[in-house]
Amino acid sequence: MPDTTVAAPVAAPLPTRRHGGRLGTVRWYTYVLLVGAVVVSAFPLYYMFVVASVGATAITSSPPRLHPGTNLPEIAAKVFERVPFVLSLLNSLIVSLTIAVVSVLLCALAGFAFAKLRFPGRDVLFLLVLLTMTVPAQLSVIPQYLIVSELGWVDTLQAIIVPGLANAFGIFWMRQHMASTVTDELIGAARIDGCSSWQIFRRIAFPVVRPAAFVLGLITFTAVWNDFMWPFIVLKSPELFTVQIALKQLQANRSIDIALAMGGSFLATLPLLIAFAFVGRRMVAGIMDGAFKG
């Protein structure tokens, strides 16, 4: 009787990592470029700290001083004495956090609708949203101010919060992530199980795009925190000033105290640095987790 035993196929050996190849190691010039990019990006912030801790002599001395001093507490005390800086920080925190949270939710809802729902005029409406991104923000200041004035919101925080609760970039950002990471098969299976559109968004779509939503919230928070033009137009009372308007009040009519301005700018940037220190690792981890899942 002939032997009909078939030999089991031999598994191919796994490719070994070549330390000399392109994927095996990182070239030395890559580190040089990364270090150079970090230095160029961080130096203005570092020099702002140097001037704030030394004084105006850090700029006027020859050569300019590049190491920090010990005058930061004194300059910070002058900043807090000149303007209600703590209250301004609190106002900026309230405005930025509210806009970031609500904007992420509204933009995610709109992005889900444009990406996964079928309704008449969907593509035309999305095109109109994209077209608004081509309009400079300065052109909308006058009609926006007229609307806020008619509502009686001038010199109130809602005059800053409400117009920023949704934006075209956020809708486009969330729509693209919804379209690329939430599959139609997954939504179809949820429909068969009896889920409504809201349940699909809350239980399936939004958890999948949560890393993108977190990045959008961080970008929005930073942009609102640094915004100057619109708060400067609608806010009149010092107790309602955001931190950027408070920095403007540190300037005199015809002169400026460099050390005082740099000290206030450093104090205004410090909360953002603390926030990035706590959430930066989580943001990167969330982006990578979402990328691998996609």
Automatic annotation (TrEMBL):
The chain crosses the membrane at residues 28-49, 89-112, 124-147, 153-173, 212-233, 258-279. This is Sugar ABC transporter permease. It holds the Pfam family BPD_transp_1. GO terms for biological process: transmembrane transport. It is found in: Cell membrane. PROSITE patterns: ABC_TM1 (PS50928). The keyword Transmembrane helix applies.
